[in-house]
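S.,

As promised, the zinc ion run. Input:
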Amino acid sequence: MLKLYNTLTKKTQPFKPLHEKRVSLYTCGPTVYSFAHLGNLKTYLFEDILKRVLIYHGYQVKHVMNITDVGHLTSNADSGVDKIEQEALTEQKSAWEIAEFYSQAFFNDLKQLNVIFPKIIAKATDYIPEDLELIKELERQGYTYRTSDGIYFDTSKLKDYGKLTGMNFEQLNKLLKAGARVEFSPEKKHLTDFALWKFSPTSGPKRQMEWSSPWGVGFPGWHLECAVINLKFLAGAFQRGKLIPKKAQTIDLHCGGVDHIPIHHTNEIAEVEAVTKKKFVNFWLHGAFLVVKEGRMGKSEGNAVLLTDLIKKGFHPLSYRYLVLTAHYRTPLEFSWESLKASEESLKNIFDFIYDCLWWQTKYQSEKPQNNLLPLNQIHKKWLEALDDDLNTPQALAAFWELINSYYQIRKNPQLKNKINFKAVYQTALEFDKVFGLKLNKITLPKIDSHLKQLITEREQARQQQQWNKADQLRKEIDKLGYLIEDTADGPKIITKEIYRNY
Ligand SMILES: [Zn+2]
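Predicted complex:
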């Protein structure tokens, strides 16, 4: 049974969706004002593993993700400027162009990392009418107040505000006051209050993204979009554009990075639960940061590494996926080029194993395999138990390595090698890859044409006749065609040189 650590209850609990086989999953998407760095991508990878485990268990997952293309300010205290508008000025492009460009770059990263795309990807700017509906409802229920720069949510009105953080309203406000490094608007009634609607600034450069509203021209606050997109696509609370709070259903899972807990997710909960009077989300899951020696990896820390940086250095993008798998999602993962190198080595060894399995299967396929040579069921059980234990991917990888090591032990034994059930080993590996997502099913044997076949045969003959120069010459010719030859006790093994790059 799948157990997950729930930030809301601070406990690891058996996961049960509200509807037997259907799971609603919301993941907070990127703010598209720059390229996502490896730290951002770590969160999307953890969420992908979660989704794949759910699918493995036979659930139909309705996954929704937003794209923040408006309203995310440079300061969490509702001051500062809109990150996208700021970038538009810097790059001398329109805010819409900026959002579109970085959205595409982000999708490209996800593709390279073999992340399964959400069923619905919702851009914040596409749901402004729904935002206004939610603010109107909050206003009707008495949760809002107006300042000179916007409409704010009064967090003192919600009795369990802050519950995701494990702190209450007073404790949170005290904490914010003690650690206030940013300027809080003096018109805010409480430090925890947050903007639902910000008015377009009256001075400085004119905003490109702005909409009229009953309160004045402006734009939505960052937390509002996630609340609205959840209410619309997962909770089913909008009907023909109208918000019907009592229709709202609780959502099974909501994820993001740990940095979202105190403000963004806390405020999403406030917005939704204030109007629906119902539990917004059952399970909240949060991924830990990617760190470097000096601390957290981030754009503002100036140490951000992009997926494209890694590819430019010659790394396979999936080596980063592998690196993320080596740590539990709730443990901060330290990034270094050495650890990435080690991950790439492991990934290559896995590719080699799959290839080895396919190659020798063709040689021994006529033999009667013995199913009990490798403890496949036992290893599979270990693998699944690890994943069910709050997505323990390092343990699950250990089970995979147990499979690989026991396979080689037998494959290298002259008495046993032709009794291996290669097909079953291969299929078990592919089964594991349904969750790991390392694209192992893309590894195939090369097509050996008659010319190549002839070269291989001639080389074998030359070797048998100890004509080493000729054999070496032929190896070079084979190499030019893009193949490596590995001489084994069972004859030559041909490997496509592009095996690590071909997909
Ligand atoms: Zn969000």
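The domain at 346-439 is CATH 1.20.120 (Four Helix Bundle (Hemerythrin (Met), subunit A)). Residues 28, 226, 264, 268 surround zinc ion (CB under 6 Å).

- D.
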